[in-house]
Amino acid sequence: MINILIVDDQKHIRDGLQAMLRQFPLQLDNIYCAVNGIEALGVLRQHSIQLVITDIRMPDMDGLMLMAQSKEERFEVEYLIISGFSDFAYAQKAIELGAKGYLLKPVKREDLQTAVEHVAHEIKTRQALSRNMEHISRRAQETDRKELSMYMQGAVSDEAWLLQTQQQNPKLWSNYRLCLLREELWINQPGAHSSHSMESIAYRIYGKQGCICLQHRPYLVLAVDASVDDTGAFPAALKASQIDAITAMTSPQQGLKELPRSYIQALELYRHSYLFPEKSYILPTHIQRLEQQWELPYEELYALFQLVGSKNSGTITQGISKIFHKDTLQRYHIQYTQQLCRAIVQMLEEYVRVIRPYMGEEALDIECLRNLFDYPGIRDYIQALQQQLLRLNQFYYEYKCSYRNSQDLNEAIRFIHESYHKPLDLAMVSNHVSLNYAYFSNLFKKNIGKGFAEYLRDVRLDKARRLLAETDHKIVEVATMVGYESYKSFTRAFRDVMDMQPTEYRQMIRRKHDREEKYQDTAL
User: Fold this and answer.
1) Average pLDDT taken over every residue of the chain
2) What is the b/e burial string over 28-43, where b = at least 16 CB atoms within 10 angstroms of the residue's CB?
3) What is the pLDDT of residue 188?
4) Using an 8 Å Cβ cutoff, are 174 and 225 in contact?
5) Which position has the higher pLDDT, 54 or 309?
6) 316 FRET partner, CA 20 to 30 A, in 33, 240, 358, 474?
7) H-run or E-run covering 29
């Protein structure tokens, strides 16, 4: 698309030219108008104009002065001149100034169309060439950045490449810092898209020649001019732009050969930022006094896991807070915290192995605890660890209760089968296994599938059916032998379950036996 500016002090000429341009089969964007050169300069300064169609003779500033001034101000614009026969000398001067052609008044439609199409073709060709050059330049810069990024991360490069790359920006590579940035996020916060904004702020602080972007993801990594002494200027600019970012800045480095080591230092500084969540940026001076030797607090860890399976969830929370106390973590190198996390994960795994068969579809998410740096900060990691440990505590508590309950139930059932012939009730059995009456009643029904009274009745009647079938004891004697205090209550319970009287049951069983004996005799 092309923007055109018509400059003429006569309104009817401006309107006529504009009307003809609108009728041409050209892809024109906007058409602006001005009455003289001064007004035209104002339009050129406010809008992107590609073609000016201007009269030569105008008050205040004529067309030649307009061309000369726009050339001085470096406007990238083409000119077509409108003139009469008497102005031909002026037209020649305009062509010397770079005009693409001139049109005689009165302007003919076909002449205007031919001239505008010719100039429009040149403009589009130049725009396409410019876009191609920009694209090539961007691709070359991207290739250079990728090569630098790979070298920074440990890829091998030869001396010739190092020398050539360093010469492309010798001032920066002679004295630079690596700056690693990661925007601070919170749990459930959508991914941020501020890396390009942070990069733009860096260029504003350090200048185009004082800053090179080496990596966008997972962290923004910049090489910045170390001669800019105020290391806090960049973090302050980020904060002023309402970008919460962790900034790790290395010590000054000299020479491109130091880039890989500088990157390792930047990563180490970033990891140490987990120990200092109150700092928005971290420098080598912040970690140089951290102790490099330590012993993990295994006694405290064992004591913490001894609480697992109890109702002491509050004590477990306090134990985690004590083990991960800020003063302790900030005393040692970040590797201490990493080893501490690994030790806890190993203990979690050992406990999970024991109760996994009893967990069903439920499970702990131990994988989420393996890498501290997957979290926005150490507080988020500790919170996730606490959540998983409390879940383990609940699972283990239920597992222990289940194991203990199964033992109690087994003993209760054994006692019932041993004592069914005696006066027996729920209170006596619950006391025998030392459980609360109501708790035992619910536990029995939940695990056995029927209430205590129904289970005891079924045990007694099962014994009664055997006695009726296998002995000649009287019905009243059988009732007493299986624990019923009265003949009436026994026969009522038997009839409810078997849908017949005890005497009928005995007769039915005996007839069945007689038939079986007769059949066997016949077969013999």
Assistant:
1) 84
2) beebbbbbbbebbbeb
3) 46
4) no
5) 54
6) 358
7) strand 28-34
CA 266 vs CA 61, 91, 181, 391, 440: distances in Å: 60, 65, 10, 37, 62
pLDDT at 52: 94
List the one residue out of 338, 336, 319 whose CA is nearest residue 328: 336
Rounded distance between C-alpha atoms, residue 377 and residue 384, angstroms: 11
Give the sheet arrangement for strand 220-225, strand by strand: 211-215, 220-225, 176-183, 245-249, 281-282
> Could you tell me which residues are beta bridge partners of residue 291?
332
Using DSSP, state whether 333 is helix, strand or coil: coil
Q: Is 26 left (phi over 0), alpha (psi -120 to 50) or beta?
A: beta
Cα gap 331→11, rounded to integer Å: 82
Encode pLDDT of 446-482 as tens digits.
777 788 888 889 889 889 988 888 888 999 989 999 9
pLDDT of 94 above 80 = no
Record the tokens describing residue 337, joined without a space. 């915290």
With tokens 């290391």, the residue in question is: 231
Tell me the β-bridge partners of 246.
182
Tell me how crowded residue 396 is: count the other CB atoms within 10 A of its CB.
21
The helix/strand/coil state of 129 is helix
At 104-115, the pLDDT tens digits run 888 888 989 988
Contact 279, 244 (CB under 8 A): no
Q: How confident is the model at residue 190 (pLDDT cuts 50, 70, 90)?
A: very low
Say what percent of the chain tops pLDDT 90.
27
Q: List Cβ neighbours of 85 (8 Å cut-off, separation of 6 or more).
A: 104
What Rg value do the Cα atoms of the chain yield, rounded?
Answer: 47
The per-residue pLDDT for range 133-159, each reduced to its tens digit, is 665 555 645 666 788 888 888 887 788
Q: Measuring CA to CA, how many Å separate 51 from each of 67, 98, 103, 117, 370? A: 12, 12, 14, 11, 64
Q: Which of 316-325, 356-365, 503-512 has the lowest mean pLDDT?
A: 356-365
Burial per residue of 355-389, b for 16 or more beta-carbon CB atoms within 10 angstroms, e otherwise: beeeeeeeebeeeebeebbebbbbebbbebbbebb
The burial class, CB within 10 Å (0-12 / 13-18 / 19+), for 306 is exposed
Whole-number Å distance between alpha carbons of 510 and 519: 14
H or E element that contains 17 = helix 11-23
Closest-CA residue to 375 (of 337, 402, 407): 337
Tokens 């920006």 appear where?
169
CA distances in angstroms from 156 to 11, 72, 140, listed in the order given: 70, 50, 20
The rounded distance, in Å, linking the Cα atoms of 132 and 137 is: 8
